[in-house]
Amino acid sequence: MLALLVTVFSLQSLFVHGQLENVFTYLQNQGNFTTLVKLLKQSGLAGTLATSATPLTIFAPTDAAFAKLPQSVLDRLSGDPQALADTLKFHVTSGIVISPMLQDGKVFTTLSGKNLTAHRYDNQKFVIQGVEIDGGDKIVLNGVVHPINSVLMPADVTISEYLGTHETQFSDLYAALVLEGLEKPLETGTYTIFAPKDSAFAQILANLPSITADDAYFKKILMYHVVPGVWFSAGLTDGMTLPTLAGTNLTISLPGSGVYVKTAQVIDADIPLANGCLHVIDDVLTPPK
Question: For a disulfide at 130, which of 48, 87, 270, 283, Cβ 3.0-4.6 Å?
Fold first, then answer.
């Protein structure tokens, strides 16, 4: 109710001060959404955002967000009208969505028909589809704009499916999970996995025979990389501990440059998946025996 009252008050203020920008004209006038504005025009969605009688909320990637995408991805989207429209619609949901409504686990259906999931953490940071929202609520005539610093992507595959289809990075980890019968559980529960790349396994290659000889401990090592729940990096704080499926905790460190899980550095963070998220790490974690 409070969130609704705030929205009504803000909309009234827009009329009083003559600020009659709609969602599209707001984006057009800001100067840091030039790529988004261009793609909205190209896809035909600009008109929807300008004239919709139903309030819309857009999680709007800035130019810096689009700059993170490989040029090949932008070229593919520009050359595929349907893929472009679906990608942009994935950033838009019907109705008013302001920050207090972004509660942990809240799901919003987008104009593409796919869902966005929000997560809110104890440090009061919140994310949508793994992307932190820190630009405030930009309330305009027919909706709300949330600037974001990454382009949102649907999470269509589970943790196990992602690992199994990225064999150039995770062939060792996925093979180990299959060997220990853990790949199926990682398709059904909700988890965060700190996933060592193949190069991390290569570092312990000499010790692998002795490690794998102790089957119970090898399984414990694998489970030590898996945390129940969804922990995107926005929710991680220095010194916090996370319980693992192995029964012992992982300690998070934020030394000022990057995120560390025990001694392993997170080298690629916040990959959203259908049943959680994945962080790529550069070392294999070993729990106490």
Answer: 270
Rounded to 10 deg, the angle between the 81-89 and 34-43 helix axes is: 120
Distances (CA, A) of 159 to 116, 162, 177, 278: 17, 5, 11, 7
Residue 137's CB is within 10 A of a number of other CB atoms, namely 20
226-228/115-120 β-pairing = unpaired
pLDDT, tens only, 105-142: 999 999 999 999 999 999 989 999 999 997 779 999 99
Count of residues making up the chain? 289
Find the distance separating the first CA and the last CA of the chain, reported in whole Å.
Answer: 51
**How confident is the model at residue 18, as a pLDDT?**
45
State residue 165 phi and psi, 5-degree precision.
Answer: -100, 5
pLDDT confidence band for 90 (50 / 70 / 90): very high
Average pLDDT value for the chain: 90
DSSP 63-88: HHHHHTS-HHHHHHHHH-HHHHHHHH
- Nearest CA-CA partner of 250 in 214, 283, 215, 276: 283
When pLDDT is cut at 50, 70 and 90, the band that residue 19 belongs to is low
- 60, 136 contact by CB (below 8 A): no
> Contact 94/56 with Cβ under 8 angstroms?
yes
Amino acid identity at 257:
S
